[in-house]
Amino acid sequence: MQIELTVNDKLVTWDVENDEFLADTLRAHGFLSVKKACDTSCCGLCTVWMDGKPILSCSILAMRAHGKKITTIEGVSQAAEEFARILTAEGAEQCGFCSPGFIMNVLAMKNELDNPTEDEIIHYLTGNLCRCTGYMGQLRAVKTYLGVA
Amino acid sequence: MFTVLDMAQPDKLEEAFEILTKRKNNTILGGCAFLKMSKKRIGTGIDLSRLNLDYIREDNGFIVIGAMAALRDLETNALLRDAFGGILSQSVRNIIGVQFRNGVTVGASVYSRYGFSDLLTALLVLDTEVELYNGGKMPLRDFLQKPYEKDILVQLRIEKNQRLAAFSSFRKSASDFAVLNIAVSNLDKQWTIAVGARPGRAVIAETASRALSQGHLSAEEIEAAAKIAADELSFGTNTRGTAGYRKALCQVLVKREIMEVLQCKSN
Ligand SMILES: Cc1cc2nc3c(=O)[nH]c(=O)nc-3n(C[C@H](O)[C@H](O)[C@H](O)COP(=O)(O)OP(=O)(O)OC[C@H]3O[C@@H](n4cnc5c(N)ncnc54)[C@H](O)[C@@H]3O)c2cc1C
Ligand code: FES
Ligand code: FES
């Protein structure tokens, strides 16, 4: 079927299969920042925004994006870079494979929560797995970025 | 991976039901996270997005939750955070992550009657009614005992009363399935205790609930009710815990949640 949506502020019309998931559609159209690392909706690497809310693009049908606004990290490059600099300064990025999804969820959290506590930060980021870092460096970076350190 | 041959986006429930019952493999699509893990070959996938069923609102003494409301909506909705000690919001907060909960739906979670369901355990101790398109309205506890029939879950209706409630889920790690779920509620003299992830489907501990409702809530009676609950329910073994472990946990957690409700009462 045909869907019309906005990706990073650009209106696009795409043909998608009925059973195609959004992550695959985005990657097929060159949004290679969108990663997939599990089959069970549990790693968070495929996180993008739909109408500003973070979602798992691996688990949402592409056709559900019809009429919606999708944002990938390519669409928020300035904020992403600002946070990424803090993340690397904390030594919290190793292979980097989890970063696009993680950063999209951190930025979503910044938009949704005011001055979150450590518990609230951890709760918001629970769905983002990272196999390299052990999370402590990430947590430091997030707190610095949000100004709640 | 599941496959969907055709896609229907009906504007009316009537039409959705007609398509659903036309062929055996025609299927309602919720958020699709669970369907995605299956190998189901769907004939016509029925997308309910055009029916505007994603509401949570108050209506004539009921809290009404549409089938397409996301679990994250339950978690953040102000009405639900306030009502019944916020147990509905609390019950979903450990399911995978925020992004996941933004995508999965209340209707699918209830209709599917998963044994591990956190939400069902919490809903069971409230005055919850399930509204099906074809089957009509019925108490959740009756719905849970019905055999699977093709139908569309349209909305949940929860009587908005002064019921106090507490919920806890015991997990080995955040975002894993629960080892055991407990919910307890009280309205006037009536107490209700529900246990889920036994790992079987959530049920009400009827004898324990009755015993607690008839007593004076002394420490001994609370202890006794918790033991009755653990004795009257059946538990099973899976990778997350043995039947014996769950039974032991049940007694401790039921007692704790009764105390929690009493604490709310005294505040
Ligand atoms: C990896 C994973 C981990 C999970 N962990 C937990 C957990 O720890 N605790 C917990 O409580 N839950 C858990 N869940 C379940 C989750 O919360 C949802 O209940 C589940 O994903 C179904 O929601 P969905 O919107 O994805 O449904 P879908 O996958 O779209 O649908 C599931 C079924 O419901 C049917 N259906 C959907 N909507 C309706 C409707 N309105 N009327 C009738 N039938 C309908 C579909 O036809 C399908 O058969 C988990 C799910 C996954 C995939
Ligand atoms: S790829 Fe793992 S959650 Fe989407
Ligand atoms: S840095 Fe390698 S998975 Fe996170």
Describe the structure.
The complex is a heterodimer of chains A (149) and B (267). Chain A folds into two domains: 2-74, Beta-grasp domain (Ubiquitin-like (UB roll), Roll); 76-146, DNA polymerase, domain 1 (Orthogonal Bundle), CATH 1.10.150.120. With 149 residues, chain A is α+β, with helices and mostly antiparallel strands. Chain A contains five helices and five strands, in the order ββαβββαααα. In chain A, β1 and β2 form a beta hairpin. Chain A is 36% helix and 15% strand. A five-stranded mixed beta sheet of chain A has the order 2-1-5-3-4, with helices on one face. The radius of gyration of chain A is 15 Å and the shape is globular. Chain B folds into three domains: 3-48, Uridine Diphospho-n-acetylenolpyruvylglucosamine Reductase, domain 2; 51-159, 2-Layer Sandwich (Uridine Diphospho-n-acetylenolpyruvylglucosamine Reductase, domain 3), CATH 3.30.465; 176-266, Enolase-like, domain 1. Chain B is globular, with a radius of gyration of 19 Å. The mean pLDDT of chain B is 97. The interface between A and B is medium-sized, with 29 and 28 residues. Bound molecules: flavin-adenine dinucleotide and FE2/S2 (inorganic) cluster (2 copies). The site of one FE2/S2 (inorganic) cluster (FES) has 10 residues of chain A, from loops. Chain B: Residues 1-163 form the FAD-binding PCMH-type domain. Chain B: Keywords: FAD, Flavoprotein, Oxidoreductase.
Task: Provide a short characterization of the protein structure.
Chain A is of the alpha+beta class and 149 residues long.
Quick tags:
heterodimer; A: 149 residues; alpha+beta; Ubiquitin-like (UB roll); DNA polymerase, domain 1; 5-stranded mixed beta sheet; 5 helices; globular; B: 267 residues; Uridine Diphospho-n-acetylenolpyruvylglucosamine Reductase, domain 2; Uridine Diphospho-n-acetylenolpyruvylglucosamine Reductase, domain 3; Enolase-like, domain 1; 3 domains; 5-stranded antiparallel beta sheet; 4-stranded antiparallel beta sheet; 12 helices; 12 strands; binds flavin-adenine dinucleotide; binds FE2/S2 (inorganic) cluster
